[in-house]
Amino acid sequence: MYRIKNSKHLASVINYTNLSNMISEAEMTEFLNQAKELNFNTATINPTYVPLAKEILADSNVRVGSVIGFPLGFENTESKVGEALSLVENGADEVNTVINLNHVASEKYDLIEDEARQIKEALGDTTLKVIIESKILEDEQKANVVIRLENANVDYIKTSTGFLTPNHIYEIVNDINIFQKYAPKTKIEVYDGIDIWKMAHQVLTAGADLIASNNGYQIVSKYKELRENTQIKPKPITLKK
Amino acid sequence: MYRIKNSKHLASVINYTNLSNMISEAEMTEFLNQAKELNFNTATINPTYVPLAKEILADSNVRVGSVIGFPLGFENTESKVGEALSLVENGADEVNTVINLNHVASEKYDLIEDEARQIKEALGDTTLKVIIESKILEDEQKANVVIRLENANVDYIKTSTGFLTPNHIYEIVNDINIFQKYAPKTKIEVYDGIDIWKMAHQVLTAGADLIASNNGYQIVSKYKELRENTQIKPKPITLKK
């Protein structure tokens, strides 16, 4: 059983995410201030607001993540590399991309490895998280994909874009098992409709390194309320001699 | 009332579209052969298969369209321009992009004009279609956007990405009215769940220059069956003297 030590620890394994494409600067500022207040691992946002995030999160430990080739993943490799470099130039610490699922449909797995490698080489030390969109893949396809992603030295394999119906907890555990078996050295991030701390706990217990959630603020706040702000004063206990 | 002369004419105003992100090369080949068979105005497909489309459609009049900044539109302008150039290099005749809706939310309409202009200038003679995703905009926002797109000399204003619930025919007519009033010189393409020829007819009657549909093949085939393959032999009529 994964041990969540306290609310700070919980926030440190959450990627607080908002990938809405129609969010005003004022709303995004509020979101980023929440990320800063609770000191999440990462704030992942759309490319438009990467410079704003860099500014607001400058004096914090919160990493700035954004997305390329998102959410469909069918852009040319050359375009994805260009997008990635433009995010880094704007200050992103992490880049999330989606595999080209057409190549899965045509069983051209080598093209998936080649693309991941090209993006990772362009990014250098910047973290690369590659989303496989597990909801629409068969287990055999997932295994074939993650082997190639580990070969390409990506930093994280991530389950979902968050734009499809989220997987059930059993499907998430199945995904983690497949990732651990076929890409044992690569870290795992799960982004799959995690909206309460108990589900976060289940996913971490199953072996995820990070969870991404649009509800990070509520998850940590609720955990804090339940575990740290509860005023339980136990009655004195006299032990038997 | 728009007059559809025959099935060839109907196909000439349809952009046959397939923007699935998980389609094999064999399936895409079948789709492109359908586009060629009925001689559609355009085949719009994902970037992966632009070179294949160029090859299959080489000796036809069917234009090859693809997408950038799709379907969320929140990429940096620099990235969108890079994607556009990479599509042209692969042989695309048309580029579809989505406005950055964050700028609508923040009422930064000038940034929308500026981006459209930069993409159009990079594209030169290649057709630029700009999608406003009308489903999530207020009428006032639509008017403000389309004025700027006309200023930027885009070739078409397009209603939707096709990734949201499609608009009702009344909403489509309302959109066309707004486009005609605030961007009178720019052509109009409607992509909004048009799946039968009667709806195609309604949208063309309302003033659309082109309709985009995933069901182009079925629309034209059905029209052909109903209007051209029907064996009606009228009885001889003797007119009164």
UniProtKB/TrEMBL annotation, chains A, B:
A single GO cellular-component term on record: cytoplasm
GO biological process, one term: carbohydrate catabolic process
EC number(s) stated in the UniProt entry for this protein: 4.1.2.4
Lineage of the organism: Archaea, Methanobacteriati, Methanobacteriota, Methanomada group, Methanobacteria
InterPro entries: Aldolase_TIM (IPR013785), DeoC (IPR011343), DeoC/FbaB/LacD_aldolase (IPR002915)
Protein's UniProt keywords contain rRNA processing: no
Keywords: Cytoplasm
GO molecular-function terms, A-Z: deoxyribose-phosphate aldolase activity
Pfam families noted in UniProt: DeoC
Classification via NCBIfam families: deoC
Name used for this protein in its record: Deoxyribose-phosphate aldolase
